[in-house]
């Protein structure tokens, strides 16, 4: 079949400083504005609410997930944060480190200790942990089999391990029905069979000294079967991949988190160094693409800073916000 060329139009939403990661819930996008110490709510492509998060320097909010209507926020660096205001509870999780991952699955909130060798499972105020390989970062959840990161949620035991001859794994996502896409620091995305661990395809990103780093995030797009990964290091692009590179979409500076909205079929990209969220509609299947960037009149001017590396510390914090958001 001959591929049809399609234009990908990118628009932007001004946010508070340092948008890092986000989550979709109930028709809205919730993002962490890390530098502003805020949680912001986006609806109809506009920021409709800003919530100030507790500030206990040097702790900084990093990633957010939703579970049963509550919002769980994992912090980088800093001591335990005490309950305050709308905060429900704080969990002290050792060794979350520089690049912790957080997600929810089957009523659990799962957090990786990126500076250790644990994955934490939280439900009803109880914390389980499983010892895994050193420096776990990415999480991939298969809702059909109830398996995450090679761990069964039935008994918290490791089901299997996969090994890649790479310098390090950064982020991963599950690709139905039976694949895992894993991004590595060697600027490659591996597609693995989720049962056997066999490599199905390898995508190499031609981005030189810019591309995947610990702030990159990869997500699956059910609309067209592609995966999208943010090229966070010295870059302003999101790669759309299906085993090979389909498109490099130009967004804002230092793209970090990516959120897919299943209602409007748009991708939302947190552009950390631009103080904005870029959004665009992923193309339909069986197309090739060119891209353009639209500057909204309401946008703040681009900042010339780059993402500053965060010092690795021993203790991280997990904060729960109430569901009144």
How many domains? 1
- Can you give the helix content as a percent range? under 10%
Count helical runs: 0
For CATH, the homologous superfamily is named as: YVTN repeat-like/Quinoprotein amine dehydrogenase
Shape, principal axes of CA atoms: globular
- How would you sum up the major sheet? 5 strands, mixed
> Would you list the SSEs in sequence order as H and E?
EEEEEEEEEEEEEEEEEEEEEEEEEEEE
- Percent of residues in β-strands: over 45%
Q: Structural class from helices and strands?
A: mainly beta
Mean pLDDT: 80
**Overall strand count:** 28
CATH topology: Methylamine Dehydrogenase, Chain H
Report the span from N to C terminus. Answer: 47 Å
Just give the CATH class: Mainly Beta
Strand order of the largest sheet: 24-25-26-1-27
Instruction: Write the CATH architecture name.
Output: 7 Propeller
Radius of gyration: 18 Å
Uncertain regions spanning at least 5 consecutive residues = 1-5, 78-85, 289-316
Organism: Stygiolobus azoricus
Keywords: Membrane, Transmembrane, Transmembrane helix
Transmembrane segments: 299-320
Protein name: YncE family protein
């Amino acid at each position: 079949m001959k591929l049809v060329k399609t234009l990908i139009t990118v628009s932007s939403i001004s946010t508070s400083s340092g948008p890092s990661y986000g989550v979709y819930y109930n028709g809205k996008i919730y993002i962490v504005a890390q530098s502003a110490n805020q949680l912001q709510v986006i609806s109809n492509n506009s920021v409709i609410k800003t919530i100030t998060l507790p500030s206990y320097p040097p702790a900084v909010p990093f990633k957010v997930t939703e579970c049963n209507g509550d919002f769980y926020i994992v912090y980088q660096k800093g001591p335990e944060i005490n309950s305050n205001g709308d905060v429900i509870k704080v969990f002290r999780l050792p060794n979350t480190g520089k690049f912790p991952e957080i997600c929810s699955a089957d009523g659990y909130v799962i957090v990786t200790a990126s500076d250790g060798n644990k994955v934490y499972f939280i439900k009803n105020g109880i914390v389980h942990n499983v010892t895994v390989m050193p420096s776990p970062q990415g999480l991939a959840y298969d809702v059909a089999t109830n398996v995450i990161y090679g761990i069964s949620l039935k008994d918290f035991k490791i089901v299997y391990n996969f090994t890649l001859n790479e310098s390090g794994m950064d982020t991963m996502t599950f690709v139905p029905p039976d694949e895992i896409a894993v991004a590595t620091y060697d600027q490659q995305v591996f597609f693995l069979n989720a049962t056997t661990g066999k490599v199905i395809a390898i995508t190499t990103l031609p981005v030189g000294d810019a591309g995947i780093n610990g702030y990159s995030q990869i997500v699956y797009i059910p609309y067209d079967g592609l995966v999208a990964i943010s090229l966070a290091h010295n870059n302003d692009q999101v790669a759309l991949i299906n085993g090979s590179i389909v498109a490099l979409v130009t967004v804002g500076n230092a793209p970090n988190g990516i959120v897919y909205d299943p209602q409007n079929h748009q991708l939302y990209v947190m552009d950390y160094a631009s103080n904005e969220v870029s959004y665009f509609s992923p193309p339909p299947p069986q197309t090739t693409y060119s891209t353009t960037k639209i500057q909204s009149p309401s946008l703040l001017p681009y900042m010339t800073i780059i993402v500053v590396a965060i010092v690795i510390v021993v203790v991280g914090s997990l904060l729960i916000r109430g569901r009144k958001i």
